Amino acid sequence: RRGAATVVKPPFVDASPSLRGLDLAGALEETGRLVRAVGAGLGAVIDNAAERVWLIDENGVPIPPETTLLLLVRELSAAGSDGALLVPVTETRMVEEVAAGNGIAVRRTKASQSDLLATAAASDDVVFAGASGGGYVFPDFLLAYDAVMSLGKILEIASRSDRTISELVHGLPESTLVHEEA
To answer: How would you class 13 by CB atoms within 10 Å of its CB: exposed for 0-12, middle for 13-18, buried for 19 or more?
Structure first.
């Protein structure tokens, strides 16, 4: 039986709910070094508003957010959840591929966080809503992006498996979506 321990790097505090104060690439690199140094099984970077989370595997390698989304979709659909998973129309078609055959529906929303959340709120059967920007919603818990709940779900998935995080994401398809930031 494995246990869990938390090592926290002192955060840069910024009252802004945006990513403005977060050097994501630097935070992922620094967290990766910390994961390797302490021999952790997983690392995470959470944004200032605790809405989005980015994962680092046990080797200190950042997991692309598209891959984290696919991991959550695969594991939630494989767990036999009844209901629907929501993703924006801009997400990779691989979402349907990893959920296929498990009896859970994948539904698409307009390509905005507000539409994703509004659709989740208006539907009684939604068990998960997410986008590859690192934001994930578990409507039974909270109808908003929640990095801590998302990290808890990732830890739950990892605790039920005898595989490492890198092994869990290894078989997932690689997304070829191109993202452009303005």
So the answer is: exposed
